[in-house]
Amino acid sequence: MSLFWRIFLLNAVVLIIATALLLGPVTVSTPVLLTEAAVLTGGLGVMLIANGLLLRIGLVPLQRLTRAMTTIDLLRPAQRPAVGGRGEVAELITTFNAMLDRLEAERATSAARALSAQESERHRIAQELHDEVGQSLTAVLLELNRAAGHAPPDLREDLHQVQETTRTSLDEIRRIARRLRPGVLEELGLTNALKALTNEFTGATLVVHHRIAADLPPLEAETELVLYRVAQESLTNVARHAAARRAELALNRGPAGVELRVRDDGRGLGDAAEGAGIRGMRERALLIGAELDLGSAPGGGTDVRLTVPVPHRSQ
Hints:
Elements: H1 3-23, H2 34-71, H3 88-150, H4 153-180, H5 183-188, H6 190-201, E1 207-212, H7 221-242, E2 246-254, E3 257-264, H8 276-287, E4 291-296, E5 302-308
Parallel strand pairs: 1-2
Antiparallel strand pairs: 2-3, 3-5, 4-5
């Protein structure tokens, strides 16, 4: 029986009983006697309690659905509200769960297209930086070297300083191109790419260590790219915002699949809201069905964990 009919019938029973009492032999004295007042009060209390219990039981599934609606985040797939109640209530919860499934599928599809376009644009920009700007600066560097060889002594020192500035700019452009398009990932694999990434972020104020297992299972190219980008974004956040002195990147094989962890000894997340970088990591994780968790490291700082399920291959 639907919620509508249950509430309607209960109210109908209350009205029928009240009408029967008015039309029956039962009378109320004037003034009302104490026993009559007690009977009327008790009857009214029973009817109110019954009506309240029915409404409470019928609306509990709707309250659970309301809580789920206020906490749902499409970037964090969670357990669906349990289908409870009867009639329209159960149908409403079932429809809501189906809507969530459709929205998550559509978001995953649109995110995949957006990230694919982003990677293509990164590839194009990196290629132009390497082929156009890099070659132009290399030519400028050679011309400066030739000009310094024929310049008078008072200008030679200035030309050497310009050479060093140009060489520094060329190295920076090459570094940016490598970050935009991780060629080492395509050429040497994920393990060497992550090792090169930790070396890139290691400097005077930050030391990044790596622990990469040797028994990693074969991974698809898309999965390797997601692991690399999540590690890159995590270390970028450490270098820019954490004020950390040490960080560790670990990639291991676990019972649930492959686990990537990036930990640091910095100031931690605190109450800061998630920025575009973290939301981008969550979107990448959804593309391969991975689970991303961010929390506090044991000794302070931030602990980023990406768990990638790996299907078992038949022997």
